[in-house]
Amino acid sequence: MGILRACARVFKWLPVVFITAIIAWSYYAYVIQLCIFTVDNILEKVVYMVFYHLFLFLFLWAYYKTIWVSIATIPKEFYLTDADIDRLENEERGDRQDAILKQIAKNLPVSTRTLAGGIRYCDICRAIKPDRCHHCSVCETCVLKMDHHCPWVNNCVGFSNYKFFILFLMYGLLYCLYVAATVLQYFIEFWSNTLGSTPGKFHILFLFFAAAMFALSLISLFGYHCYLVSVNKTTLESFRTPVFSSGPDKDGFSMNTKLENIKQVFGEDIKQWWMPVFASYGDGRCFPTRTESEDSDHLLAERQRWAEEGMESDTTNTEDNIKIDICNSGRSAHYATSEQQCPQPSLEPNGLTAVTIDPEAGYDNKSNSIDHHHM
Ligand SMILES: [Zn+2]
Ligand SMILES: [Zn+2]
Question: Transmembrane residues, as ranges (predicted)?
């Protein structure tokens, strides 16, 4: 088993080795074969090389950061204690398990739920899942704000490296477009047979094909992730709408403006957006949700109505059922029975309050293991 695991581990690095080999070969083809041996004009040589090295540097920097930044996993307060695990596992009825989880999660900043309305729980990690967190079966752990597992970087793309991943796509695309654009003239000469008998002919030919091919695949992926950032969704959330206590909401994490959504990932300082340096808001545990002041007014009104109608006698239900996530609250005007305070208060400057109710019961015994391959 040990050997199999070791083999699997080596195997997972193959896509990274493949990409690195392509980059190394493209370096040889571009710098040696094209710039040194083929291009005659000195000025052209210098300009080509300067910009080439600039794009290559940015591309490698973002690629390196995406691969090697360690993924953010569940903080310890979300893990169940041994006593809680015993309690949960000795209980066979799903609704009771869910009640136990609800009680455990009472002081945790969680506002998303399972489809059945229960607390999201990973039975592999034995932890309550923070919002936007998913279990990755390749990494064998829960990953905060998991986007997808990317085999090309042999890492999960999530809260800790999403900005780097997007920059990796962007610089990869720029690199390919730049190479394709500058090689094009010599590529045409190759076909029109005016390139002479340069030994690098084939390198230049394949360089253009490879750059154009990678550019095509990167452009769609980069475009897709630009869209996702602008609406503040992860890839997983675009496939599976997040469920809040009030029900599914596909734009549940989206801020009021696209700029605010971009800042969630790229940070406040626009001057640093281009750099693969971590700048995302928050700590990955809780996220501002859409301002729902109308909803909270509505909920309070509902609550009042229940009280008036004497429906609040069933306190065990309502105590846990109305929660206000004041995670990032600068405007937490409405409080209900149980407040959930994000352990790290200065998560997001915008101050958004989300009111969540979870009347649904049901314990999703699956850990939502996701092995999502993308790219
Ligand atoms: Zn897990
Ligand atoms: Zn993973």
Answer: 12-39, 45-64, 164-188, 200-224
> Nearest ligand, CA of residue 133?
1
What's phi and psi for 155, nearest 5 deg?
-155, 160
Measured in Å, residue 162 CA sits from the centre of ligand 1 at: 19
Which ligand has the minimum distance to the alpha carbon of residue 141? 1
Q: What's the 11 CA to ligand 1 centre distance in angstroms?
A: 23
List of residues 6+ apart from 285 with CB closer than 8 A: 75, 78, 109, 130, 131, 144, 342, 343, 344
**Number of the ligand closest to the Cα of 147:** 2
Written as tens digits, the pLDDT of the chain (375 aa) is 688 888 988 999 999 999 999 999 999 999 999 999 888 899 999 999 999 999 999 999 999 999 999 999 999 999 999 999 999 888 888 888 889 999 898 889 999 999 988 999 999 999 999 999 999 999 999 999 999 999 999 999 999 999 999 999 999 999 999 999 999 998 888 777 765 666 678 899 999 999 999 999 999 999 999 999 999 999 999 999 999 988 898 888 999 899 999 999 999 999 999 999 898 888 888 888 875 434 444 444 444 544 455 443 333 333 333 333 333 333 332 322 233 444 333 333 333 333 333 333 333 333 444 444 443
Q: Which residues are catalytic?
A: 150
Domain ranges of the chain: 2-68+161-230
